[in-house]
Amino acid sequence: MPSWYMLEVYDRVVGSRSHLTLAMLTLLVLGAYAVMEVLDWAAGSLLHQAGVDFEKRLAPRTFEACFTAGWRRLPVGGLQPLQDLRTLRDVFAGPAVRSVLEMPVSLVFLALVFAIHPALGWLTLVAAIVQAFVAWMNERDTQEPLAAAGRAAREAQVHADASLRNAQVIEAMGMLPDVRRRWLERQGEFLRLQATASDRSGTWQALGKLVQTVVASALLGLGAWLLLREMLVDDGALMIVASILGGRVLAPIVQLVAQWRAVVGAREAWQRLHQLLETLPARPPAMPLPAPTGRFAAENLVVPAPGSTAPILKGVSFGLQPGEVLAVVGPSASGKTTLARALVGLWPSAGGKARLDGADVYAWDKAELGPHVGYLPQGVELLDGTIADNIARFGAPDPARVEAAARQVGLHEFVMALPQGYDTEIGTEGARLSGGERQRLALARALYGAPAFVVLDEPNASLDEAGDAALAAAIAAAKARGTTFVVITHRTSVLAVADRLLVLNDGQVQGFGPRDEVLAKLARAAQAAREQQAAPRRLPATAVRPAAEGAP
Q1: 484-488 and 453-457 as β-strands: parallel, antiparallel, unpaired?
Q2: CA 390, 394, 400: angle at the middle one, nearest 5?
Q3: In this structure, how many other beta carbons lie within 10 angstroms of the beta carbon of residue 102?
Q4: What whole-number distance in Å separates Cα of residue 306 and Cα of residue 300?
Q5: What is the DSSP string of 226-281?
Q6: Adjacent-strand bridge partners of 353
Q7: Residues 353 and 327 sit within 8 Å (Cβ to Cβ)
Q8: pTM reported for the whole predicted model
Q9: What membrane topology does this protein have (predicted)?
Q10: Up-side HSE of residue 467: CA atoms within 13 Å toward CB?
């Protein structure tokens, strides 16, 4: 339209000196501009909405997959998939997608150039092929350094996140210079690779723009040559139109080359997201099951760590009735924490099953099972929010149930002494609480809502004597209501409320049964070991030889 307006002004207005003609031409071109901007706004709005809809559809699935990969310790997890989802959302309304959508219009422009004159059309087509070759070369030269730069950037980010999580240890032991040096090495590698990719991409972008500029002038020159040989109709206006249309044919490819880094980033994001969702497919909907009563059975459990084939638990079996308390003891690295994770359905078993009321805990939909299960991991994990939010598991807090859970573990008085009570923010990972307070808060969360089955992994690791007493009282009270407990502990204070005792060693059951019977067997075994150690060692007869005569 700008070129048409210019030609018409020179042809009709300057020669006729007509104000009316100028006014009408101006109205026409302004109307065309308005239509163009409305269409551009509509296209941008539609593409933006498409990106938002794309994210809305995939966000729940992606978050669930990231969460599952996190607790299963899979390498495809972390926060990267959520960032990839945002990258794909943003690319919808980006220049790269707009360029691709304009390519069909470019074919229309190419056909119009051919209609003006075949020679002009062939020149435009050759230029388009050259531009496509430039785009391919840009892809070939930048793919490897861009991919490597992305990996280096992710490694640097992971290192920085880990450093922030361990900031106290790093500062206390003077590790900051070395930690910073490693981060700078990774960041420097990212910047170097990105600079290499940018240099190569910039070269091909410049070549693409050169081709576009040369073609526009070449079309004008060829049109003039055709006009001089009387091979082009009209008075030269079509020559200018052909030059303009030829540039429009090449514009989308030039724009795509210029946005190639975004294209590569979106492609890698899509590949990573696809890998995650393929590795962790959505679980099919399962038939709802009745609320469990707390009857539990471990049937010959064989459990390796995720991603490994070496079993940690080797044929563990036991059974519990509703309201029974099982204490699990054993030396370090005997498989106690692995057992806790298997009992609540976090880690899958390679053999055997963990069954609650006869149903496989691992296969049971956790959204349905979760309200009936309590779990306290060895490393206390709290979320940024209020005390009430954490106790209520971030559902809608029921004040009465929140307070009941806090009272059970002796936390209520502490909470009420805070200025905001149960609405007090605890900070990231409970940073504003002491170790014992975090432990009690996590224990209250495990007992919230009177679950039927509770697994506690070292629940008194950070508790003092008062905390130990509160823990034992909380277990006894919940046991009286019919809650089944599995308590993993190194401390004997919990044994007083235990009905049964399980002794683990090297992933195998060395003793299981009523608490007093197992303790008696352990005591007899320990006494026998002490007696054997104290007994004088006897040498075999062949080792006793008479001394030779004259020997000292």
Answers
A1: parallel
A2: 70
A3: 17
A4: 18
A5: HHHTT-S-SSSHHHHHHHHHHHHHHHHHHHHHHTHHHHHHHHHHHHHHHHHHHHSP
A6: 299
A7: no
A8: 0.67
A9: Multi-pass membrane protein
A10: 21
List Cα–Cα distances, 344 to 296, 332, 340, 457, in angstroms: 11, 21, 7, 11
CB neighbour class for 23 (10 Å; exposed up to 12, middle 13-18, buried from 19): exposed
- Alpha-carbon span 534 to 128, nearest angstrom: 93
Structural contact between residues 471 and 485, judged by C-beta atoms closer than 8 angstroms: no
By DSSP bridging, strand 373-376 and strand 453-457 are parallel
**Which positions ≥6 away from 3 have C-beta within 8 Å?**
240, 241, 244
Instruction: Please identify which residue in the block is written with the tokens 């059970």.
Output: 408
Q: What is the pLDDT of residues 34-51, one digit of tens each?
A: 999 999 899 888 988 998
Q: State residue 552's pLDDT score.
A: 39
**DSSP H helical ranges for 2-117:** 2-8, 14-16, 19-71, 80-92, 95-116
Q: What is the Cα–Cα distance from 478 to 454, expressed in whole angstroms?
A: 10
pLDDT band for 283, please (50, 70, 90 cuts).
confident
Residue 347: per-residue pLDDT: 85
Report the alpha-carbon distance of residue 144 to residue 134 in Å, rounded: 17
Beta strands 453-457 and 351-356 are unpaired
Per DSSP, the residues of 335-371 read SHHHHHHHHTTSS--SEEEEEETTEETTTS-HHHHGG
CA distance 131 to 347: 53
Helix (H) or strand (E) holding 159: helix 118-165
Q: Is the pLDDT of residue 433 over 60?
A: yes
Residues forming beta bridges with residue 374, ordered by sequence position? 454
- Give the residues across from 327 on adjacent strands: 487, 501
Is pLDDT above 50 for 547?
A: no
Beta bridge partners of 303: 313
DSSP label at 459?
A: T
Task: Name residue 102's amino acid.
Answer: E
Tokens of 254: 């030039």
Whose CA is closest to 444, among 391, 395, 483? 391
Residue 495 per-residue DSSP state: G
Lowest-confidence pick of 18-22, 185-189, 227-231, 507-511: 227-231
H or E element that contains 300: strand 296-304
Q: Are strands 500-505 and 325-329 parallel, antiparallel or unpaired?
A: parallel
Answer for the pair 345, 366: CB distance below 8 angstroms, yes or no: yes
In the block, tokens 């990258």 appear at 87
551, pLDDT greater than 50: no
**What does pLDDT average to over the chain?**
84
Task: Please provide the distance, in angstroms rounded to a whole number, between the alpha carbons at the two ends of the chain.
Answer: 122
Percent of the chain with pLDDT over 90: 16
CA-CA distance, 293 to 324, in Å (whole number)? 12
- The torsion of the CA quartet 150, 151, 153, 157, rounded to 10 degrees, works out to 140
Cβ-Cβ contacts under 8 Å for 183 (sequence gap 6 or more): 156, 159, 160, 163
